[in-house]
Amino acid sequence: MKKYRELLKVAKISDEELVSLYIKTRKESYFETIYDRYEKKVYAKCISMLKNEAQAQDATQDIFIKVLLNISKFAGKSRFSTWIYSITYNYCIDVLRKINKDALVFPEQFDENLEATNDLDEKLLLEIKINRLEVVLNELPNTDKTVLIMKYQDEMSIKQIGQLFNKSDSAIKMHLKRSKLRFIKIFLKKFRNNG
């Protein structure tokens, strides 16, 4: 009965409080609750980005190990859901980058003909564009980066983003506007003269 009451009590605690309690006590039940709350969401994000069940399962486990190892770095400047979303996104991007790099180093799927060369050129150009995008995104504050990714990559609605951040639609629209302006400013500063 005592354990059941403890579980009920923990279930009502906010993510941020759970993180704080886990950092203070290192009690497994707090981290298990965090895991239970986010495991399916993290997996869903991984599968949507990686398009492979086995990779998504491995990535989900790796992400939670990363969360566990870095949980004391969570500063509470954003919601915990935003923080874990950012870790998930960055981890998946790293996996995709490694897959693309391996495909470029070992291009077995390409025939030794002109068409394969054209495909490889396009892939390299796309990777250069993606790298530029990542450079700019990595210079943005985490919340700006996350909001832009949610809106333009994940195609989430203003309302969905607002629910995740617990903010009004107008606040999210304003945040998006400011994030886009910061993004453009950084991009132009870094790449205006680089073609």
Write the CATH homologous superfamily of the largest domain.
RNA polymerase sigma factor, region 2, helix turn helix motif
What's the structural domain tally?
2
What is the helix tally? 9
> How large is the radius of gyration?
20 Å
Please tell me about this protein's structure.
- Helices cover 81% and strands 0% of the residues.
- With 195 residues, it is an all-alpha fold.
- The protein folds into two domains: 1-106, Rna Polymerase Sigma Factor, Chain: A, CATH 1.10.1740.10; 133-195, Arc Repressor Mutant, subunit A.
- Helix 3 (28-50) packs antiparallel against helix 4 (53-70), helix 7 packs across helix 9 and helix 8 (158-165) packs across helix 9.
- The radius of gyration is 20 Å and the shape is globular.
- The chain starts with a helix and ends with a helix.
- The relative contact order is 0.07.
Indicate the topology.
Layout: H1 2-11, H2 15-25, H3 28-50, H4 53-70, H5 80-105, H6 114-139, H7 142-153, H8 158-165, H9 169-191
Helix pairs in contact: 2-3, 3-4, 3-5, 4-5, 5-7, 6-9, 7-9, 8-9
Jot down its keywords.
195 residues; 9 helices; Arc Repressor Mutant, subunit A; 2 domains; Rna Polymerase Sigma Factor, Chain: A; 81% helix; mainly alpha
